[in-house]
Amino acid sequence: MFVRVKNIKGRKYSYLVENEWTPWGSRQRVTKYLGKTHELARLADGQKELPTGFSEAILGAIAQELSNHGFVEKEGTFYNDTGINVNLSSKTVKHKNKGAVIGMNEGYLCEHTLNQLLSFQPEERPDKTATKLANHCLEAGLKLNNDQFLHIFEQVK
Length: 157
Known about the structure:
This protein is of the alpha+beta class. The chain contains 4 helices and 9 strands. The chain is globular, with a radius of gyration of 16 Å.
């Protein structure tokens, strides 16, 4: 499954979509509406050392990326000036108390991508694990340097 953004009457909305094969070829089936999409510009390039532990390192990387996109943390929740808030403990992304999607870098941060990252399970082969982890990070809009990715990858084992 992946996030697909549709432009409807000049506004962007995100859906969780999966591909399925039919006798006529591949078709996309919408499985869930995720919310309005908010594209955000990167304001800074701050990088920090990530904590030990897989979940903690992922949460640290997300916090770093949110800070780089203008979010401010207050009591465990990240806020920005457009009314979007991200609560990492409850794994929610909201705008005016409705589900929302944040377009960052090359991906989209939403409840689905947050859960996908935090529930990541390694594959049998390390190369497949690395590829899968990198794809999940990109899908969530995380921009990690090589050292940060290696640190997170080492925490998976």
